[in-house]
Amino acid sequence: xxxxxxxxxxxxxxxxxxxxxxxxxxxxxxxxxxxxxxxxxxxxxxxxxxxxxxxxxxxxxxxxxxxxxxxxxxxxxxxxxxxxxxxxxxxxxxxxxxxxxxxxxxxxxxxxxxxxxxxxxxxxxxxxxxxxxxxxxxxxxxxxxxxxxxxxxxxxxxxxxxxxxxxxxxxxxxxxxxxxxxxxxxxxxxxxxxxxxxxxxxxxxxxxxxxxxxxx
Length: 216
What we know:
This protein has one helix and 15 strands, in the order H-E-E-E-E-E-E-E-E-E-E-E-E-E-E-E. By secondary structure, it is mainly beta. Strands 2-13-12-3-10-6-7 form a seven-stranded mixed beta sheet, with no helix packed on it. It has a four-stranded antiparallel beta sheet with strand order 1-15-4-9, with no helix packed on it. A two-stranded antiparallel ribbon has the order 5-8.
């Protein structure tokens, strides 16, 4: 074909246009994510405040955590058949070491719906190290969630965390207990509470929730 002719140039432009459309479609397809943000919060630097570490709604961000389990309650705006969590160490001055984590359907207070607790992994391992100034996203966890349902995310810290990246004025209560209480469904061990969220910055859902989830 003589590419100098008008017909040849038109054919070339047509083929190029099709290639461009295909490329754009491929980019859109590759960038599409099955995950929907069901809960998120802005995080901030640790601060001292009235009632810090008093066990009665105080701010734990300045001292952080050591050999403790921290259970945080959030409400998911959307439902799904699996979840994943986001942790933030954006304002940390050292790597954040999370020994393990669990997620389950929240009951009253620090209680969790029986048999709903699932282990959370990061890159298929139970523990995670989040560098200072960075975030981490967990692997998918098979926990069915209904829209507007509350979830309990429990983080286990063995090593001292140092000051914690957090959200000071939460619309929920967080709880902590000494030692390992990741799998507790009862609230008894979580005797201290706070009106803030710590390290947890987001919860995402994917898939359709089962239609027969029991009411809580």
